[in-house]
Amino acid sequence: MKKGGPLVDYLLPAWPSGIDRFERDPIVNLAQLFNTRGHSAMLLLLQEAPWLRYQLHTNGLAGMPWWSAFDALQDVAATDGLPWSFADLTWPDAPRGVIQYPLYGPHGVTMMRDDRPWAAVQFAMGGFVAAVQWFAADGYCLQKDTYDDRGFLTTSTWYTSAGTETKKEWFTPMGTVAVTAAAGAVTVNAEWAAKLGRPTFTDLDHLVLAVAAWYLTAQPGGHLVVPADHPLLSQAAPLTQHHPLVVLQSTEMRQADFIEPSDHFAHTVVVPTQRTAAVIRQSAKPKAAVRVPAVQVIPPFAAELRLGESTELSTVTLYWRVGAQPAPDRLAVIAPILVNILAAAPERQIVIDCASDRDAQTVVLAWLTALARTIGVAPDSAEFQALQALPPGTDSVSEPAALTDTHRDSAQSILKRCRIAVAPALAEIEADLQKTRLVVDLADTPDLFVQIAAISAGLPQINRAVTGFVQDHQNGLVITADDQLADALDYYLATFTHWDEAVVACVDRLDGYAADQLLKTWEEVLRDD
Questions:
Q1: Among 226, 263, 403, 506, which is most exposed with the fewest C-beta within 10 angstroms?
Q2: At residue 31, what are phi and psi to the nearest 5 degrees?
Q3: H or E stretch including 384?
Q4: SS3 of 378, please?
């Protein structure tokens, strides 16, 4: 496979099998940083990745060197190829008297025999073949064949009528069996049995780790960077004999979230904030003859000067990042304050960033309840019930008729200046922040991308949690209670004085979060043996 220079660092992703953009994945972001700035590193893949080439391209990593444990096991030498199309598949002839025909759909083709499906082709991107399912006479999936994006059958899996996997085989590109998993054991071919000193393993994880250890033994030293949520992290000790382990904790942690990092065989734990560093330092307990890992703070995203244009616009936009699973009692305090802010000035508008559709429903209910109170609609009235049916972003509130003209006009005036953004992409967040005047994130765990992107845009932020990205009364305010939000908003909206100070503070902080500084800090971690 592809290799880096004589001494490389190894990044171990834990990506799902889909061909998606993993915008917030820590290994994707770190690999992009290393790849664009010439740091010698490669991906070490311990999971099956039949569409890896497309994953790398989708995530801006097409030029990133990589090594795959499954490619090694399956003797795959090719680094690229052409996926199979539907025309490349061959089908057994139907029994005499049975009509066989395809039914085409948007995501695949179902092969029919008379009125019964007997096979289903699943397409990946571009209409290429990802898998073929074969059905038994009574309709259950008897076998599933998976295809690699380089143009060969990579695995076949067999199932019972209850959907239980009974057997799985991995193939070489020539079609010979390389690995078999069945009856509670995993068996390798003779070539790999000789390399690993045994033909059988208790499970696939142990086999994959043994293959990775075999590979790393022959490689020059370098660090292993593994995300804290990697499914094999707790078993990764055999890989660290000659390659120190760096655990990458990319999200914020509170004391209640703490899990001891990899039983202390980690060399270093990299965390995103000073708060998380403090949690780990306070919680990690030294063990006999085992060193406690060092803790290093490195932001998960780089900042880049992109000052917003809010002062050039006639509108004043607030960006409210709600946080996952918002508590209704907290929304009952926060939403009325923000509704009143909009009601006080017609040029004000708001973008409400929700993590999911369910969270958005919770927020909308709180928002409409607060709106009813602001415009004078009684909570036990028919008007209140009518108002609950109106979503934020409504341009025209002509229905329902239960609303009086006055209340309809008042509701429309506020609702048309609200927009709900559900799980927005990072580019959408950056685009919204370019037009934003002020960011509000009162969640216990703030969104670190929003925090860093706000610094890039020169925007003050109002938070409750102290992450280190916002310094109180410099580039934002850190409040201690939700009911302090009204005063905090007024601090930045009443005049430009404090807002201008925050812009200067953001610019002053940019160098510390720039990509070159992040790379420098990472290289210090990866040079430290």
A1: 263
A2: -65, -40
A3: helix 382-387
A4: coil
